[in-house]
Structures are given as C-alpha cells and as structure tokens.
Write a structure and sequence with these properties.
- By secondary structure, the protein is mostly helical.
- It is 71% helix and 0% strand.
- The longest helix has 32 residues.
- The N terminus is likely disordered.
Length: 133
C-alpha cells in the first residue's frame, strides 16, 4: 500500500511538472536557452541565475550532444554574460549550487538542446533545482 502511495505521488509530481512545462516551459527555455537575451534592468538575482543556468546548460548540452569543444562552450557562456551585463553574478556558476543546477539541467535537455526531455531521469530534479533558485 505504501509503495502505491509513493508511486502515485511520483506520478502526480511528474504530471504537475509536465503541466508547468506546458504552460511555462517553452517561455523559460526560450529565455534561458536560445542564447543571449536582455533582461529588464530591474531583474533580480533569481532571474539572472535562471538565465545563467539556461545559458550554461545550453552550452554544456552542445558539448554533450553536438561535439562542441569546452573552449567553444566557454566562449558561448562568456559572450552571453558580457552581452547581457551579468558579470557581477557570473561567478555564481562556479558555486556548488550553480554547478549542480547546470549539470542537472544540461542532462535533462533533449539532444537538440532546445528544450527539456521530459522522459529524462534528470527532468524532475532539474526543474526542482531551478525552482529552488
């Protein structure tokens, strides 16, 4: 009985995340993964961190799936940081939290690196980590 409750709880959580992704996922991915973007000047630290995660996860996904070199991925990240004025917050990517969220997110992306792969085992942990920022 307890196993059934755990399984239904997991299914409910996955359904809720899928519902969130349908409503907000394409916007979140477009903001964070399409490349450099301009945030409003009043953007808070949480929004900047989410954008940094999207940028870095996109670059890491390209290393994993498209054969990009680390140097090319670093150039993508650096250009995004400079183009958007995120220099002040960029060091956060090297923090344990930043590394964890980027790693989970990049592994949860599809092979085209333009959205999440909702069947990935990293999908739910990635969404939870992003939401916790």
């Amino acid at each position: 009985m307890a196993l059934q409750i755990q399984d239904s709880s997991k299914a409910l959580k996955r359904d809720a995340l899928r519902s969130w992704m349908k409503a907000w996922g394409s916007r979140a991915m477009a903001l964070g993964l399409v490349g450099p973007m301009a945030l409003p000047t009043a953007a808070n630290q949480q929004e900047t961190r989410k954008a940094l995660v999207g940028l870095a996860a996109y670059a890491e996904c390209k290393v994993l799936h498209d054969g990009y070199s680390r140097a090319r991925a670093e150039a993508i990240i650096q250009a995004g940081i400079e183009n958007n004025g995120w220099q002040q917050d960029a060091s956060w990517l090297q923090s344990p939290q930043g590394i964890r969220v980027v790693t989970l997110t990049s592994k949860a992306m599809n092979t085209s690196c333009n959205n999440f792969d909702q069947s990935s085992p990293q999908f739910i942990p990635a969404i939870e980590a992003i939401n916790a920022l």
